[in-house]
Amino acid sequence: MKKTATLTIDGNTYELPVLEGTEGDKAIDIRKLRAESGYITYDPGFANTGVCKSSITFMDGEKGILRYRGIPVEELAENSTFVETSFLLINGRLPTRKELNRFSVMLNDHSMVHEDMRHFFESFPRGAHPMGILSSMVNALRAFYPELPEEEEEINVTFARLLSKVRTMAAMSYKISRGHAVVYPRYDLTYCANFLNMMFDSPVRPYVIDPDVVRALEVFWILHADHEQNSSTAAVRLVGSVRGNIYAAVSAGICALWGRLHGGANQAVIEMLQQIHDSGGDPMPFIERAKDKSDPFRLMGFGHRVYKTYDPRAKIMKRMCDTILSKLNRKDPLLDIAKKLEEVALKDPYFIDHNLYPNVDFYSGIVLRAIGIPVNMFTVMFAIGRLPGWISQFREGQHDPEQRLFRPRQLYVGDQVRHYVPIDERG
Ligand code: CMC
Predict the structure, then answer these.
(1) Does domain 265-370 have CATH number 1.10.230.10?
(2) Which residues have a catalytic role annotated?
(3) What's the pLDDT tens digit per position in 206-242?
(4) Which residue's CA is minimally distant from atom 50 of ligand 1?
(5) 264 within ligand 1 shell (Cβ under 6 A)
(6) pTM tops 0.90, yes or no
C-alpha cells in the first residue's frame, strides 16, 4: 500500500503522497498542495525542498557519506582519475578501457580554444577576478559553437568540449592576467598534467611534471566533481529548466559558485588563515568573533547545509595536505594554524552545539598552494572540478519528464492595494 501523509488545515484534510529514495530518503509530495488547498510551503533557502529525483550523487549529512553513482568518494579518490570519474558521473557507470581511451582522445581533440576568443580575454582589465572572466568566457562559447546538437554522439562532443576547453581557458586567463605568453595544450599529456603545464610552463623555465603533484590535482578535482543539489548546481538546473543552453547554464553555475558561502570559501579560508598568521598565529580571537552574533564574521571553511558531521572530502583533503607537503619536502605555516584552529573549534561548545565541522574548503587551499596555484585561481579550480557534476545534472534534468520550469512561490508581505498619487499631491 502506498504511504501518504495527512495534513489538516481549517478542518480540511489532504492526503499527500510519500516518496522514498533507494537509500531511504523520505519526501512528502506537495505538487498538488496549492491547487487543492490554496496553501504553499514556506522554505527559505530550500533547506527542506527536494527539487528533483536524481540518481547521480548520494549524500548522508549525518553519517558523512558521499557517493558518486553509488561509488564511495574515498574509493574514487584512492583509485580513479578525474577523467574516469567525469565519465562515471556523466554516463552513470565506469568506462571500459576502450571507452576511457576514446573519452580521453575526445578531450584532447577539443582542448584548443578559438583564437578569436583570445581577443576577449585580452580585453579584460588586469586584476579582473578569474571567476568573472571564466563565467563570461564559458557563456561566450555559445557564440563560437552555436549549434546545440540533438544526436547522442554530438551531445557527448559538447560535453567533452566544455570539460576540455574550460580547463584550457582557465590556464589561459591566468597566463594573460600575468602578461605571459599563452601555453597551448599538448596531445601527449593527461588532462591534469596538461593543465599544470599550461599554467606553469614558460620559455625561460620549462615546467617539469611531477607525478605526485598530478596525483594531488586528480584527487582535488575528484573530490569536487559533484555534490548533488548545491547552490551552483541548482543554478545550472534552473537555467536548464527554462530550456536554456548548457553554456549559459554552466556560466550561471560558475557565478553562483563564486560566492564566499559556496566555492569562494576556498579563497576566503586562505585569506583568513593568513590573517591569523599575520596577527601572531593565535586562532582564539577569530573563534570568539565567529561566535559573536553581533559580528558578521564566520569561520570560513566550517559548517555545511547538509553535513552535520565531518565532511568526508575534508578528511581526505586534510590527509592530502600532509602527503603533498612531505612529498615536496615543504612546510606551510598555514597548515599548522588550520590544524590548531580545527582542534580548538571542535572542542568549543558553540561549534559542537551547531554541528560545525571543517568542510572541503578548509584544507583545500593548502593543497592548492603547495602545487603552486595562486589564491585568486582557487575558486576556478573548484569550478573545473565541478564541471562533470554540472554537466550530468543538466543532462539528467533535460531527460527528466517530471522536470518543470523552476519557479518558486513567495509569501507576499508588502503593502495592500493603494492608489497612485500624482507627484504634486504627495506630501
Ligand atoms: N562560523 C560561525 N557560525 C556558523 C558558521 C561558521 N562558519 N556556519 C554556520 N554558523 C552558525 C550560524 O551563525 C547559525 O547560528 P544560529 O542558529 O545560532 O543563528 C547556524 O550555525 C546555522 O547557520 P546557517 O547560516 O543558517 O546555516 P546554512 O546551512 O544556511 O549555512 C554555510 C551553511 C556553509 C553557508 C555556513 O556554514 C557558512 O557560512 N560557512 C562558512 C562558509 C563556508 O565555509 N562555505 C563553504 C561550504 S562547503 C563548500 C561548498 O560546497 O560550497
Answers:
(1) yes
(2) 304, 361
(3) 999 999 999 999 999 999 999 999 999 999 999 999 9
(4) 262
(5) no
(6) yes
Instruction: Kindly report, residue by residue over 3-49, the tens digit of the pLDDT.
Output: 999 999 999 999 999 999 999 999 999 999 999 999 999 999 999 99
CA of 5 to the centre of ligand 1 (A): 31
Instruction: Please say whether the structural domain 70-261+381-396 has been given the CATH code 1.10.580.10.
Output: yes
Q: Which fold has domain 4-50?
A: Rubrerythrin, domain 2 (2.20.28)
Closest by CA to 332, choosing from 321, 319, 323, is 321
Each domain of the chain, given as residue ranges in start order, spans 4-50, 70-261+381-396, 265-370
